[in-house]
Amino acid sequence: xxxxxxxxxxxxxxxxxxxxxxxxxxxxxxxxxxxxxxxxxxxxxxxxxxxxxxxxxxxxxxxxxxxxxxxxxxxxxxxxxxxxxxxxxxxxxxxxxxxxxxxxxxxxxxxxxxxxxxxxxxxxxxxxxxxxxxxxxxxxxxxxxxxxxxxxxxxxxxxxxxxxxxxxxxxxxxxxxxxxxxxxxxxxxxxxxxxxxxxxxxxxxxxxxxxxxxxxxxxxxxxxxxxxxxxxxxxxxxxxxxxxxxxxxxxxxxxxxxxxxxxxxxxxxxxxxxxxxxxxxxxxxxxxxxxxxxxxxxxxxxxxxxxxxxxxxxxxxxxxxxxxxxxxxxxxxxxxxxxxxxxxxxxxxxxxxxxxxxxxxxxxxxxxxxxxxxxxxxxxxxxxxxxxxxxxxxxxxxxxxxxxxxxxxxxxxxxxxxxxxxxxxxxxxxxxxxxxxxxxxxxxxxxxxxxxxxxxxxxxxxxxxxxxxxxxxxxxxxxxxxxxxxxxxxxxxxxxxxxxxxxxxxxxxxxxxxxxxxxxxxxxxxxxxxxxxxxxxxxxxxxxxxxxxxxxxxxxxxxxxxxxxxxxxxxxxxxxxxxxxxxxxxxxxxxxxxxxxxxxxxxxxxxxxxxxxxxxxxxxxxxxxxxxxxxxxxxxxxxxxxxxxxxxxxxxxxxxxxxxxxxxxxxxxxxxxxxxxxxxxxxx
Length: 684
Fold this sequence. Notes:
The protein is α+β, with helices and mostly antiparallel strands and about 675 residues long. Helix content is about 20%, strand content about 35%. The chain has an 8-stranded mixed β-sheet, sandwiched between helices. Strands 3, 4, 5, 6 and 7 form a 5-stranded antiparallel β-sheet that branches. The chain starts with 17 loop residues before the first strand and ends with a helix.
């Protein structure tokens, strides 16, 4: 008989109290020292936590492997994206079974022509634990690619250049760049973005091919620490736009792409709480703005006089429709709009002014603009999905109003869409607001008391849209219901929905989520002992806050790279992103904001309670949520948890905010998380 393996107790982080004082309030943080990344004790503690997590999860090893095999078994491992024709070249990416990363390819004139590999992520990733492509930008003359890659998860990229026809690497190399890029018209120079030491993108530089990075020219610098800078090329390729934005205010400058040495010209100087984005169409700029329009409206302005005094309204604000992006073509404008909680597309005919919504086959769906770079054409590409519909790439003729599915995500195995059902239900929040909840489950599922995984986010006006995920089928086929709580702070129901879940209204995000969970239990969709919750980043903050409020309501929680030490982080303006985040969470230098944030900050509000089973993750190189936030949170939970369920911490020691970079390792991570949930609900 095999002896029973005894799992040692969890690691214990040594308390070393640090006193933090502000506004006459004194907080004692026993684990502040875990911020000391170079301290060998810190790494030893994180490694001990990983070992403990592995030991606790060891009995699920067979389940993890089954789940992983199921996930891989549904993926078309060798696959090709929907190709795009531009300037005589068909471009696409493809994947190869057994390889982690995409291969960027092109063919001249026809998909039957010989393939040219212009970039192979697998070759670049060799010998590295982590690899991520920040961007791949083809030059206007289709001769050179600029590509940026990250080898640590820190989101600091190295910028390189390569001849497409020969594959020859140019000598040009620029280190320490961020996302955002634009070629100039003659393909001789390239605009890129640099972050400062706090990882705030604040500068735009111009590099000339064939010169050293030390000779690059500073084009634009943003001094205000609340603002982040980005750069992009208009679809018409005539203008380079430099945008600087906080969470609630923005300003855009432009540079003619055929006159890159010229000084950037401002479209409209920034005004607090006024946002706008810009693209170009013929002799005018198109401007999407919330100026005198809470849900945004579309304006136009002459290129020669682009300021607000020249703006003309093209699409007026509508009370129940939030406009959230534009995709400009010569004769049409694609508008992204959110109404009835759905992400929709509508098309504006620039000549007639007629506006129509793009029809879709499902009642509940998500539609995003795609990758077609053709400014002159009347066909736009978009991506379509729902909780039961695999991703599709669709070409839509904006004049004829016809659609052609050019690629549908293949799902191997026995998946049949008709075997699954999706619906939307409504919970009532504490203040009477109706909060939507999206559900998906097998049609043959018993409707009462099923295990349920409830997801939430609720920040930055980012919408947690219903999308297809083949990995999720492993839960659904085991009798789970998968649910998304569309809580305030997100953008699902328009700009007001966001405003009601930020700053001094942030608690509504958490009470909305609790109301959704209580509704699902009251309607007998699940029971508390079968209710698991999950959130990532700001969604991890949501998880932490609701666990402090209602630890009895949930059986299991997964918090992925959670933002849980909110007050201490927001008080430290030397940390990445802190100052820029004041518009989202508030500035705790204000006593009012300090008290409010402290009242919900998960780390500060941990108390003696029987907490549910918890899996918490971190990334050692994470520039967005520092690894010590989840590490400190777990250490404090362990001292105050009066329950008997495990509290686990798993730290990726070679990656950042997005977790493992390779697709196979990401699928293993999915299997690990699902195995934890299944095991903790007693369903294996």
